Amino acid sequence: MKKQDVHREYNFPDADLYVQTMEKLRFAQRDIAQFDNYGYDIQKLTGIHNICQKFVKLPTDDELLGTQMITTEKKYKAAEKLKTAIRSVMTRVATKFSNRSGRYRKFGTAKMGDMTDPQLLFCGRRVVRSARQQIDFLAETGLRENHLTRISEACKDFEVALNIQQDKVADRDISVERRVELGNKMYREYVNICNIGKDIWAETNLAKYENYVIYESNNEQKKARKSREQTEKVD
Predict the structure, then answer these.
(1) Are residues 163 and 52 in contact, defined by beta-carbon separation less than 8 angstroms?
(2) Of 85, 103, 167, 232, which is the most exposed, with the fewest CB atoms less than 10 Å away?
(3) What whole-number distance in Å separates Cα of residue 85 and Cα of residue 125?
């Protein structure tokens, strides 16, 4: 059964979620006597704190994307090296056979620039096989075993680079999913803390009640704080 895609339950940056959750935790620890009546004792709050620390230690998508881009660049370089080695052979083949002949087309290098990575890899290996089958006919073009060895080695390097790049893509997908899952878990606890805090202080302490108001960004929080300060000055 296919696993369902994981979606973020919050619409503000991860950094803001972490900072705000840690802030609400400090308020909850201050009000631990009241929170204990809701099943949020110090052990529960410590568990939420640990979730926050796991979350902040996860690599960001920028880090993962950067690593993926580096491996992709290496794959492109390996692909170009393979194409160059193939062209070196095919230039010699073209001097012997017409590019419309069966012997030429057997190499399967038409539209090499449009090939997918797997197609290019198979192409390189096919060129080596085809060239060895016709090595006697191609000897006068200067084709030697070292040319074919060059393609074979380039194929190996390209396959390694391709596998590494694909692994990094998979690693990024897994890490993003893990980050979303942990972020959602932290967000749910963040909302719970805020709801409990507001319920505790709704009728007794406005300042503490506002400590638990949810803001979607630090900028909104700063605006709210500034507004409160201006109101207090007027009063």
Answers:
(1) no
(2) 232
(3) 11
**Dihedral through CA 107, CA 110, CA 116, CA 118, nearest 10?**
-10
Neighbouring C-alpha atoms within 13 Å toward the C-beta of 54? 16
Burial of 57 (0-12, 13-18, 19+ CB in 10 A): exposed
- Residue of 157, 142, 161, 96 lying closest to 107 (CA atoms): 96
Length of the chain: 235
- For the chain, give every domain's residue range: 14-62+176-234, 74-168
Report the distance separating Cα 178 and Cα 223, nearest Å. 33
Q: Which two tokens stand for residue 84?
A: 């160059």
State if pTM tops 0.70.
yes
Q: 89: buried, middle or exposed (CB in 10 Å: 19+, 13-18, 0-12)?
A: buried
Give residue 235's pLDDT band: very low, low, confident or very high (50, 70, 90).
very low
